[in-house]
Design brief:
- The complex is a heterodimer.
- Chain A is mostly beta strands.
- Helices cover 0% and strands 52% of the residues of chain A.
- Chain A has no helices and 12 strands.
- In chain A, a hairpin with a 5-residue loop joins β7 and β8.
- Chain A is globular.
- In chain B, a hairpin with a 5-residue loop joins β7 and β8.
- In chain B, strands 2, 4, 5, 6, 9, 10 and 11 form a 7-stranded mixed sheet that branches. A 4-stranded antiparallel sheet of chain B has the order 1-3-8-7, with no helix packed on it.
- Classes of the chains: A mainly beta, B mainly beta.
Chain lengths: 116, 113
């Protein structure tokens, strides 16, 4: 079975400071990892993904994520937070070794609050 | 705009009733996923279809059922509704490739009174 853990329910950061939203995963095969953002009363929007290659992945709105195989982590980062980044962030994983039909498992979400 | 359309956006109904939520995928997407999001809970995976066939099942109640039609749109049927079924129901669709991200609709907010 695959799983995703987002250990922090909420992360508070001052505007302009770097931010990190943590994610660890468990999957039996090759991990395909994703970050999504959800603004209030909206659907989730794709931010970035790691499939293979460079461990540092860059995505939308200045976000990036670092894949660490030994720590089974895929933390979301941004060098300088904006108030408009305040939202709910979800990490997700699918098993890349098992064909195209595997379900995608989402974490419980982390609420990011950027303080002006 | 993700290209995924969900209807209705809002739905208010009474306990014991039945509702149908509809999802139209992006052009070319063969996979449809249904998720439930309740207050204080994360995204609960319900069920996945691929090109008309059920592919994966999550925490879907027996009172709930879904199907994907030949034109690839999908419907989620919720019956014998209970207060606890009040939630946001999301549909997400993806391409036929294994590496693709999902594209979410704006959700259907169900309120059971």
């Amino acid at each position: 079975a695959q799983s995703v853990a987002q250990p922090e329910d909420q992360v508070n950061v001052a505007e302009g400071n770097p931010l990190t939203v943590k994610c660890t995963y468990s999957v039996s095969g090759n991990p395909y990892l994703f970050w999504y953002v959800q603004y209030p009363n909206r659907g989730l929007q794709f931010l970035l993904k790691y499939i293979t290659g460079d461990n540092l992945v860059k995505g939308s709105y200045g976000f990036e994520a670092e894949f660490n195989k030994s720590q089974t982590s895929f933390h979301l980062k941004k060098p300088s937070a904006l108030v408009s980044d305040s939202a709910l962030y979800f990490c997700a994983v699918r098993d890349g070794s098992s064909g195209g039909y595997q379900k995608v498992t989402f974490g419980t979400g982390t609420k990011l609050q950027v303080i002006p | 705009d993700s290209g995924v359309t969900q209807t209705p956006k809002h739905l208010i109904t009474a306990t014991g009733q039945r509702v149908t939520l509809r999802c139209s995928p992006r052009s070319g997407d063969l996979s449809v996923y249904w998720y439930q999001q309740s207050l204080d809970q994360g995204l609960q995976f319900l069920i996945q279809y691929y090109n008309g066939e059920e592919r994966a099942k999550g925490n879907i109640l027996e009172r709930f059922s879904a199907q994907q039609f030949p034109d690839l749109h999908s419907e989620l049927n919720l019956s014998s509704l209970e207060l606890g079924d009040s939630a946001l129901y999301f549909c997400a669709t993806g391409s036929s490739t294994n590496t693709g991200e999902l594209f979410f609709g704006e959700g259907s907010r169900l309120t059971v009174l």
